[in-house]
Amino acid sequence: xxxxxxxxxxxxxxxxxxxxxxxxxxxxxxxxxxxxxxxxxxxxxxxxxxxxxxxxxxxxxxxxxxxxxxxxxxxxxxxxxxxxxxxxxxxxxxxxxxxxxxxxxxxxxxxxxxxxxxxxxxxxxxxxxxxxxxxxxxxxxxxxxxxxxxxxxxxxxxxxxxxxxxxxxxxxxxxxxxxxxxxxxxxxxxxxxxxxxxxxxxxxxxxxxxxxxxxxxxxxxxxxxxxxxxxxxxxxxxxxxxxxxxxxxxxxxxxxxxxxxxxxxxxxxxxxxxxxxxxxxxxxxxxxxxxxxx
Length: 294
What we know:
The protein is of the alpha/beta class. It has one domain (about 5-285): UDP-N-acetylmuramoyl-L-alanine:D-glutamate ligase (3-Layer(aba) Sandwich). The protein is about 40% helix and about 20% strand. The protein contains ten helices and 14 strands. The protein has helices at about 25-35, 50-65, 110-120, 130-135, 135-150, 170-180, 190-200, 205-215, 250-265, 270-285; strands spanning about 5, 10-15, 20-25, 40-50, 70-75, 80-85, 90-95, 125-130, 155-160, 185-190, 220, 220, 230, 235. The longest helix has 16 residues, at about 135-150.
């Protein structure tokens, strides 16, 4: 496995005319599938239920080329669920049912130690602040220990600071966990909007400086439609400004494009262009993981 991505995947309900359509999504899952589509051998480390919906979901991941050997099955819990609504500008809102999701106990299952031992040998480990938010304190400690082990064995660690306030007891807890995770990462992929909400950051440069001071050497700050701030302080913009159909998954797609570029030996600016292209392709189609096309 060249890459291991850790996090929570959820079943997704979305409107299709007068009907509801069942799919799946999740920030780290979106990144993992895009990485696999890019030709990077990628495994997803998570836990799902044994219900028919979860089984079908994992089968779909396998058909995408995603390595599911690290997907653990919870004997009593189900996968989380969310429903989405999209406004006229393509912006989405979400309603969640995830309190008893299987992924919350992924590191407490019987196969967790074996999965972590395999994951520790990867070239790249990627996870997000949401990955940490859904876990109990003991699970967070195990994930952060895995990140440190990957680095100790010569691999790279990428961390996305996705901040969702409803998943935390308050911003102080989220900031403390974020800072610990940033210190474990080689590549940081924060979003200015999230960092402003969490820490009051006034600029992308302020975000980059903070993450670098915590020990993350390669920080790329995502700026939405305005592109990103590169580690050398230059702003990289997408080739064109688009009118999105659906903005969900844009940052996750950028992460995948950027990481695939860096793992393929591309320079930072070219990897950012690859990230922008993939994010642009995604937002011009419905869904966080649109079906592949030309």
